[in-house]
Amino acid sequence: MSFEKISKTLIGDNPGRSTELNYYQIGPEQADKKVYLQAAIHADEQPGILVLHHLLKLLRNADKAGELDARFVLFPMVNPLGMGDIEFGRHQGRYNRSSGLNHNRDWPSLYPAITSELIEKLGDSAETNILLVRDALRDWAAKLPRLTALEQWRQILYTEACDADYVFDVHCDDDSLLHIFSVPQQQENIQQLAHWTGAAATLLVEESGGGSFDEVWPALWLQLARCHPERPVTLPVISCTLEYRGRMDTFDDLNRADAEQLFGYFQAEGLISGKSCGLKGQAAAATDLRATEYLRAPMSGLLVYKVGLGDRVAKGDLIAEVLQLDGEGAFLDRVPLLAGTDGFVLSRVVTKYVWRNANVCKIVGNEILESRIGSLLSD
Fold first, then answer.
1. CA-based R_g, the chain, Å
2. Residue 1 pLDDT more than 80?
3. Cβ(183)–Cβ(218) under 8 Å?
4. In angstroms, what CA-CA distances link 277 with 38, 268, 272?
5. Sign of dihedral through CA atoms 173, 179, 183, 184?
6. Portion of the chain with pLDDT greater than 70, in percent
7. Which CATH number fits domain 3-285: 2.30.40.10, 3.40.630.10, 3.30.470.30, 3.40.50.10490?
8. Which of 289, 297, 307, 282 is nearest to 365 (CA)?
9. Which of 224, 257, 276, 294 has the most CB atoms around its CB within 10 Å?
10. Please, what is the average pLDDT of the chain?
11. Does the domain made of 290-364 have the CATH classification 2.40.160.40?
12. For residue 241, what are the CA distances in angstroms to 8, 219, 244?
């Protein structure tokens, strides 16, 4: 049995800015499998904190009972830098104030950790190659710069996640149904996760263009396999972003049930024994992220929705109207926002004052949209 709380100090870039990063390691230290979970990398997205709070208790009880067959690393609140981002009485938390960087964008590629010397060592055993690459990742992470608080923080996360078999990044949307982002090469396993969590949508694409935390892990192995087809290289990590509904969906009963469903998934994966927890459902089939429309406002104004979450819509249907706040038609005219695809409404924004090109709604369809090129994520 092993249950350990770890605290690390992130030294601030100026006086009064140092903070503490707390996380937990649970389960056998020499377990064959490792599971890494983090919540609130976007610090303004807090339902995941409560989900992992409840999961932490379930894992601790399972550890006491000797039922953990994997090593679990949990960061229930992974971004204390963002949690401290309070300005004029409002919490922000999505961007780093020093760099302007979105906390879940532009995570550097892991492929530079793979040197020519390492490639020469790769042999005919996929399992041995996994060990060699993960050793290289640990060495690479240990040498990352740690001058700024942001660099210190990223180095800790890279170090803890680099040898994990599961990397789950827990988020939420604004006002949304539960959904998952992942890569198509993991569709079979991620579909099982969707069944267990009750996901309304599973959105797959190999490269979103955003450099999100969950995406860099499979990207390494996929790039390695493509660049060196003569070597046996598999995809040894299941990685995804779990979007636990909307920002307001932080409730004990709801998030306790979320934790139980996640616990049940890990049991089904053979990582936890004991009495079955959670109830597996039947989720919709996964779709290509490029088939999900990100509907945007053509102008600034007051947003008036005409649809609710989960509503099915057809191309051309009225989704919302934007009430003009200035100009000739101020407070008289409304500009319609029409669906550009057939599908269902996955998410909406809570703030009803919108500005030009602001993302206001996601519609999940099945037909890849010509407009979905470049970065596929909203910032």
1. 22
2. no
3. yes
4. 21, 10, 10
5. negative
6. 100
7. 3.40.630.10
8. 289
9. 224
10. 96
11. no
12. 25, 14, 10
